[in-house]
Specification:
The protein is of the alpha+beta class. β3 and β4 form a beta hairpin. The chain is globular.
Length: 99
């Protein structure tokens, strides 16, 4: 699953600027993906398909928090479900601030 609306919007804005004479490059930030299913809604972001990540997973009756950390212990991906979805925006900011 890949986000599709935000990249389209950012691409269109960059294209418009360049058509008006600017020389802007397209830069895509970490984007939140929302999976809306009745049984288990999820929010996820980052490089969830990387094979080198170590996943720290916490599961409870309130849902799941899974954080994918690289070798330098930097957050590179996350998945949250149910009651923990409210943490998604702060986790996206943490992804964006990672070097």
């Amino acid at each position: 699953m890949l986000p599709f609306l935000q990249p389209i919007q950012l691409s269109a804005m960059t294209l418009a600027k360049n058509l008006l004479g600017a020389n802007d490059a397209l830069s895509l930030p970490a984007m939140l993906v929302k999976v809306k299913t009745p049984e288990m809604p999820l929010h996820l972001a980052g490089e969830t398909q990387r094979h080198d990540l170590t996943w720290q997973i916490t599961a409870s009756q309130q849902g799941l928090i899974a954080k994918g950390m690289d070798a330098a212990q930097q957050l590179r991906a996350f998945i949250v479900s149910e009651e923990h979805m409210k943490q998604a925006f702060s986790l996206v900011r943490e992804l964006t601030s990672a070097p």
